[in-house]
Amino acid sequence: MVVDHRVAEHEIDRIFGALADGTRRDILRRAIGDEQSVSALAGRYAMSFAAVQKHVAVLERATLVTKERRGREQIVHANRATVGRAATLLDHYEQLWIQRAERIADILANPTGEPT
Amino acid sequence: MTVITTAADAEALTLTIVAEFDAAPDRVWDVWEDPRQLERWWGPPTFPATFTRHDFVVGGESRYFMTGPAGETPHGWWRIDTIDKPHRLDFANGLAGDDGEPVPGVEPMSGSVTFEATGKGTRMTAVTRFTDAAQMQAMLDMGMQDGMTQAIEQIDVLLSPATV
């Protein structure tokens, strides 16, 4: 089984940069739950409509969300593929360390490296 | 049975792993200090690490390379920042070029490892802090595809009902 989860470095930078802000993470969480209109989102935060629009634009550039115009509203959707990829990066590193800990346990149980 | 828990924080770019071993802290410390033991666990079995230098003193540096199945040899380095045997070890871990020396301008990750005596042995907590996502990706690329395969095999073992 070969899975290629590699993503261009600049794309990863944009993803983690976008996730580095609490408001943007909150917007993303809401969008993952259900589509959100920018005006509804703007009503939730103590900041201007334009500021919320800017946060959405950062998420959009990181391809974490997509925006769709519906009448006078702008609707924000989460891009699940990108959200999954961001989490996958850490998962890989996590697996590396789990395996290291298991190898350390093996060494402690078998210090000389002789076959058991 | 080794108890392992992990916590990844994508915002802080940290990964924390807690493992409990049935051995005293001094003994667990050895697998970090002794390069011959270190190279038995640092790289995956299909990407074994060879430490050509392991100057295990504060400010000391290490050089290592990993050997992949196709003969590729990615290089890396450490710099030891804190030694409080057998309680705490802090080190920087970065990518090295084909000459084995640190790549200029590439920030290392930082690792902090603590060792606590428990009733039965040692609780080892290793925190890796990345400086940015690009660096995290670069480190993941070192021997990662094989790590993935092994992870999947391990999951298969865990799911097997015969495993207790």
Could you explain the architecture of this structure?
- The complex is a heterodimer of chains A (116) and B (164).
- Chain A has 116 residues and is of the alpha+beta class.
- Chain A is built from five helices and three strands, in the order ααβααββα.
- Chain A has a three-stranded antiparallel β-sheet with strand order 1-3-2.
- In chain A, helix 1 (9-19) packs antiparallel against helix 4 (49-61).
- The longest helix of chain A has 30 residues, at 80-109.
- Chain A is elongated, with a radius of gyration of 21 Å.
- Chain A starts with 8 loop residues before the first helix and ends in a 7-residue tail after the last helix.
- Mean pLDDT of chain A is 80; it is low at 1-9.
- Chain B is an alpha+beta fold and 164 residues long.
- Chain B has one domain (3-159): START domain (Alpha-D-Glucose-1,6-Bisphosphate, Chain A, domain 4, 2-Layer Sandwich).
- Chain B has an eight-stranded antiparallel β-sheet.
- Chain B is globular, with a radius of gyration of 16 Å.
- The model of chain B is unreliable at 143-164 (pLDDT under 50).
- At the A-B interface, helix 1 and helix 5 of A face strand 1, strand 2, helix 1, strand 8 and helix 3 of B.
- Strand residue percentage of chain B: 35-45%
Kindly report the spatial arrangement of strands forming the biggest sheet of chain A: 1-3-2
Largest interface: A-B, 40 and 42 residues
Order of helices and strands of chain B: EEHHEEEEEEHH
Task: Bin the helical content of chain B.
Answer: 10-25%
Low-confidence stretches of chain B: 143-164
Helix content percent band of chain A: 55-70%
Largest sheet, strands/sense/barrel of chain A:
3 strands, antiparallel
Distance, first to last CA of chain A: 30 Å
> Count the strands of chain B?
8
List the SSEs and their pairings.
The complex is a heterodimer of chains A (116) and B (164).
Chain A: H1 9-19, H2 22-33, E1 36-37, H3 38-42, H4 49-61, E2 65-70, E3 73-78, H5 80-109
Antiparallel strand pairs in A: 1-3, 2-3
Helix pairs in contact in A: 1-4, 2-4
Chain B: E1 3-9, E2 14-21, H1 25-33, H2 35-38, E3 49-54, E4 61-66, E5 75-84, E6 88-96, E7 109-117, E8 122-129, H3 133-140, H4 144-159
Antiparallel strand pairs in B: 1-2, 2-8, 3-4, 4-5, 5-6, 6-7, 7-8
